[in-house]
Design a protein that fits this description.
The chain contains 12 helices and 12 strands. It is of the alpha/beta class. The chain binds pyridoxal-5'-phosphate (PLP).
């Protein structure tokens, strides 16, 4: 059976060149970067070279990079780290209603600990407004965290503008850039951010490794205490194979980014144009232009996202739906509700995300298989019948 992977926003396959770069660090270069002998020094050099590569990639300084176990840890470290470092200065944090759980859960935790959190709404295209942010800032605000691109609908936020507002008021600004690093150019100075989270498995690196960029001078309380790795800011023996893999992934993205953006956005635009021509009553979720080059999300009325996914899976196509199905409840996506969809429409969403190995023929296959899947499910749908 043909197999088509169109879920690159969930995770990407690790690039074989990344695996080749990592391999020696499991074998003869297995040293601990904190050891003083030759093995340790070799590991230390690889660690610092990797740090330099990542810093160059996002236009930061090497000492501003903290390696972590991934996006979730970076997000938690940023929120909790700033909150606890600045709690004497203020107790107010601003974020948005469409953040990933890696931000919204630590935000809720901080609320339980006495912090006040303002959740900014978004417009129907998923954009946070600078005017709303300005209004929400108080003299107690210590941190603003707004994601760079949304993982479900792909909308890109005007981070440079929002970051400038924070900068003017002397408030730290964090962005979760897990969906953008490796996919579009990132410059921490142009974005006006003090902290930025990234994760290697979203850009063809290994799972379980990421980084937090922390602008020099930013106060951050450590939440992983132990050894003095990462200048005492994140204890634990370095995941050297992972870090070397992250750095190799970064170099490959640097080389390939321009052509990947061009190719993937052309395929994305083909989907945006052709899906509504082939399937009646669909709507594109997210901003029409200000969006990730590799991501589309459609609401396909009268059917459940899960049924669509399972039917496509039987045909070898892997996509995603915004409605997260947990064992106890069927909650529609908080992002789709936030952009104003009703519960019923929010349940019928399909996210298609492209990447390095997506071919034009994969899109042909999806465009051939999706319309009959939708027609069949609609024929069985009581919602469609009622209409
Ligand atoms: N933030 C965003 C926007 C994401 O899409 C993800 C992963 O899905 C994460 C954070 C969490 O990253 P990780 O899987 O590396 O913990």
């Amino acid at each position: 059976m043909k197999k088509v992977y169109l879920d690159y926003a969930a995770t990407t396959p690790t690039d074989p060149e990344v695996i080749a770069a990592m391999e020696p660090y499991f074998f003869d270069k297995f040293g601990n970067a904190s050891s003083l002998h030759a093995y340790g020094q070799e590991a230390k050099k690889a660690l610092e070279d990797s740090r330099q590569s990542l810093a160059d990639f996002i236009h930061a300084k090497p000492e501003e990079i903290i390696f972590t176990s991934g996006g979730t840890e970076s997000d938690n470290a940023a929120l909790l780290g700033v909150a606890y470092a600045l709690e004497k200065k203020g107790n107010h944090i601003i974020t948005s209603v469409i953040e990933h759980h890696a931000i919204s859960e630590p935000a809720k935790f901080l609320e339980k600990k006495g912090f006040k959190v303002t959740y900014l709404g978004v417009d129907k295209e998923g954009l946070v407004s600078a005017a709303d942010l300005k209004k929400a800032i108080t003299d107690k605000t210590i941190l603003i965290s707004v994601m760079h691109a949304n993982n479900e609908i792909g909308t890109l936020q005007p981070i440079a503008q929002l970051g400038q507002l924070a900068k003017d008021k002397g408030i730290y600004f964090h962005t979760d850039a897990v969906q953008t690093v490796g996919h579009i150019p990132i410059n921490v100075d142009e974005l006006n951010v003090d902290l930025l989270s990234l994760s290697a498995h979203k850009f063809y690196g290994p799972k379980g490794v990421g980084a937090l960029y922390v602008r020099k001078g930013t106060r951050l309380e450590t939440f992983m205490r132990g050894g003095d790795q990462e200048r005492g800011r994140r204890a634990s023996t370095h995941n050297l194979p992972g870090i070397v893999g992250l750095a190799r992934a970064v170099q490959l993205c640097q080389d390939k980014m321009a052509s990947e953006i061009k190719f993937q956005s052309a395929l994305r635009d083909r989907l945006i144009k052709e899906i509504p021509l082939k399937i009646p009553e669909v709507r594109l979720n997210g901003h029409a232009q200000q969006r990730l080059p590799n991501s589309v999300n459609f609401s396909i009325k009268y059917i459940e996202g899960e049924s669509m996914l399972l039917s496509l899976d039987l045909l070898g196509i892997a996509c995603s739906t915004g409605s997260a199905c947990t064992s106890s409840s069927l909650e529609p996506s908080h992002v789709l509700l936030a952009i104003g969809l009703d519960h019923e429409t929010a349940h019928g969403s399909l996210r298609i995300t492209l990447g390095r190995w997506t071919k034009e023929s994969d899109i042909d296959y999806l465009l051939e298989k999706l319309p009959p899947v939708v027609a069949k499910l609609r024929a069985m749908s009581p919602l469609y019948e009622k209409k």
